[in-house]
């Protein structure tokens, strides 16, 4: 099935690696009619996936409250998924995601009580000067429409695709079947488009549920029909086609705490303290700083393998002796491992239903400009905030993002562990007999247990958005307000 790339917003297909400048503006609308006019003027700037821009890209996603504020009928908003409508900060969901205590939305810079966005405007430009010009122009437009920016979330690229702890974070992505690269990639990593884009079959060979409006609510026929293959419902117009749910989580990273912990707990006979610290960090990530996977090179970094993503776990590393089962990349994508009493094939099919298309970028200054772990571990704490604007696209928030976050990243018994959660991004605590702040490294003759891991990342903001297709945006900009 051919992807309608003229109607899909380009961020779903590419991460704009060559557009160095980027910033996200979470915003609140104040008046439906002026917001509609603003959206109408913005439409020609929105970048479709059929273009590969050299200069700039502009994208817009909305929250459920954003659709309501725009005046979309309540019965249409009701057709979005429950998780989206309730939002990231709903009380039960805070527990599911681990957004409690220090990570609770009441502590967030945006997205928490009173600061919930209605939309996020995402701007990309070839350099910082071009970004400033684009932003200034856009600011004039949104202010004229009475729109209030909640924050300006700048992103900065770090050398060698590193994230702030010093590891390459540009490697593993699911490939969408129907895009050209799919033929070159292994079957385990080639996913049905409906896993990430609404309007196409998913891994179950079903069309994902799609938000829709009644025929009468689209008198000019701007929207396509809901696919006939979707569950029986009265004929309706498809508001979701070529769109995707966008999960946004701003997470700060405590880089000094990370490297101090590694240095203090990683003595290895025959290794320098620095090499031992990097070795333990690599066990936590599942890749070396260059990006080389431990499954392929367990004992030392090998920059020649920096972009290597062609590995599985069942045959090569069933017991996690190379890449621990609890490492960040093995928890967030166990590939063909996990249903250990079943088979690699069963595991692979299960894991394929919980994949995320990531589009995150880092923010804040590097602790050491080189981003070399040797420099990062020597650098003194500077009190600056830095971290990741974690962004991922899914067609089903609960089956994909929330499942990965809750059952894999947070779960303290994941893969046969006892007291562990994800060493990088899990919530580490000891409470009422539950311990989640350990990290286990399988080894022979004895496994190693690292205890009392501090919290290395903290939530600073977030929300569930929907990134509509271009026709749906045009509908939002033109549908008759009551
Ligand atoms: C501060 C926060 C985070 C940091 C520093 C971080 C860091 C990393 C690094 C270094 C990699 C390896 C590079 C790659 O495979 O592309 C990676 C991969 C990955 N991360 Fe994260 N991450 C963070 C948050 C998250 C969160 C919140 C999730 C999901 C809920 C997540 C899901 C993934 C996935 C799915 C992969 C790819 C795994 C694979 O396919 O092998 N990450 N991350």
Element layout with pairings:
Layout: E1 21-28, H1 32-42, E2 56-62, H2 64-69, H3 74-77, H4 82-86, H5 91-97, E3 119-125, H6 128-144, E4 148-149, E5 153-155, E6 175-176, E7 190-191, E8 212-214, E9 236-238, E10 244-253, H7 255-265, H8 273-285, H9 328-332, H10 344-351, E11 357-358, E12 361-363, H11 373-378, E13 387-394, H12 398-410, E14 430-431, E15 434-435, E16 439-441, E17 448-450, E18 457-467, H13 470-478
Parallel strand pairs: 6-7
Antiparallel strand pairs: 1-3, 1-4, 1-5, 2-3, 8-9, 10-13, 10-18, 11-13, 12-13, 14-15, 16-17
Helix pairs in contact: 1-13, 7-8
The structure holds protoporphyrin IX containing FE (HEM).
Please give a structural write-up:
- GO terms for molecular function: heme binding; metal ion binding; peroxidase activity.
- Its cofactor is heme b.
- InterPro entries: Dimeric_a/b-barrel, Dyp_peroxidase.
- The protein has helices at 32-42, 64-69, 74-77, 82-86, 91-97, 128-144, 255-265, 273-285, 328-332, 344-351, 373-378, 398-410, 470-478, and strands at 21-28, 56-62, 119-125, 148-149, 153-155, 175-176, 190-191, 212-214, 236-238, 244-253, 357-358, 361-363, 387-394, 430-431, 434-435, 439-441, 448-450, 457-467.
- The model has no long low-confidence stretch (mean pLDDT 95).
- The two termini are 37 Å apart.
- The protein is built from 13 helices and 18 strands.
- The protein folds into 2 domains: 10-161 and 207-246 and 462-478, no CATH class; 249-460, no CATH class.
- It is globular and about 75 Å long.
- Helix content is 24%, strand content 17%.
- The structure holds protoporphyrin IX containing FE.
- Protoporphyrin IX containing FE (HEM) binds next to strand 10, helix 9, strand 13 and helix 12.
